[in-house]
Amino acid sequence: FSDTGTKPPESGIFGFMINISALLGVITMYIRYLLIEKQNESSHFVRSSCNMFSLCIGLMGCIGMGIVATFQELSVPSVHDIGALVAFGSGVVYITLQSIISYKSCPQWNTYLMCHIRMAISVVSCIAFIPMIVFASRISMTKIDWTPGEKDYTYHFVSAICEWTVAFGFIFFFLTFIRDFQ
């Protein structure tokens, strides 16, 4: 994932787009928080502290995205990796909490189908997150141009697939909010 933004000029574009994405994530999460608070006034389906906790976890993920965008993989790998761990780890927790909140709001504010879709995305993201971390931790070198058969290539390849799976999981999960935001 980060390999796409390690060399100029791609690195500048990648960093800018990640920061824009983080900002849009903050806005989306805050609107979702406000929506749940408003719905909760009449239905009392979730504790306000749970909704606030979910928002805080989500915001931590956006901060992690900012760290990933600011500290490039080849320049400062340890800081970049910590940012990625915070972004992906917090993101997975956020979408899982939001899936649970969605179930609690059924059937008044959500359909069970939408809850099942959100939970399926959360489960796939959680499942992909684990091998992403395991295989990324097995990579002994930081580099950009990998070739099949090279030392740690398989670890890099599997980790990258899992990373993209989690990233697209976040995108698809956020797309499920469209109907709620109408």
TrEMBL record:
Residue ranges of every copy of the CWH43-like N-terminal domain listed in the record: 2-182
Entry keywords, A to Z: Membrane, Transmembrane, Transmembrane helix
Originating organism: Phoenicopterus ruber ruber
GO terms under biological process: regulation of autophagy
Family listed: Belongs to the DRAM/TMEM150 family.
Annotated membrane topology: Multi-pass membrane protein
Keyword Transmembrane: yes
Annotated Pfam families: Frag1
Cell location: Endomembrane system
Name of the protein in question: DNA damage-regulated autophagy modulator protein 1
Top-level taxon: Eukaryota
Gene Ontology terms: cellular component: endomembrane system; lysosome
Stretches that traverse the bilayer: 12-31, 52-71, 83-103, 115-135, 155-178
